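Please predict the structure of the following assembly.
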Amino acid sequence: EVQLVESGGGLVQPGRSLRLSCAVSGFTFDEHAMHWVRQAPGKGLEWVSGISRDGDTIAYADSVRGRFTISRDRNSLHLQMDSLRPEDTALYFCGKDIGPGIGATEDWGQGTLVTVSS
Amino acid sequence: DIQMTQSPSSLSASVGDRVTINCRASQDINIHVAWFQQKPGKAPKSLIYLTSILQSGVPSRFSGSGSGTDFTLTISRLQPEDFATYYCQQYRYYPLTFGGGTKVEI
């Protein structure tokens, strides 16, 4: 069974940093691209970032480019979030792609909540 | 960035109804469209990729169609568990982008 478990969320002040992680199991991690998707309270889904299976291809949403960094190692996906803003407040989901390149998500974690507030 | 415009934003339906949700892309995205279902307080569930291919375990009452800029998700006979919010997403170009969502209510 595919499992994706996010961690690292919490309350942080504007301008500070936070590092999210997603521990995976139940599939061969290095055969699949991975994603981060977020959802602000009461809002729709927003794709944040994706990374190919080998880490060679990385893409970001315009709203986070230059502030967030996606990475992967062993059986974990990470999202380093710097210079956080109140508008980054959201539930952050980790997603497993159907294939090796950045494309469609097929499995999701339950999410970790990030709150940016002073 | 590619804009994905979903319509309607909400709809009322009854069990057994046929429901159609539309998604229009701001430019040609071939067939690189996925559909997701989300219930309140839950993670999204993947329904369809490449416009019309059902994810494993998704009931056959769900179907997808379209190409280029216009795409449709159809639920042939609405079931009680189908009341949820549905999102389309394009993955032809970076950054990937979602539609605004369609809430299917009783």
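The mean pLDDT of chain B is 97. The radius of gyration of chain B is 13 Å.
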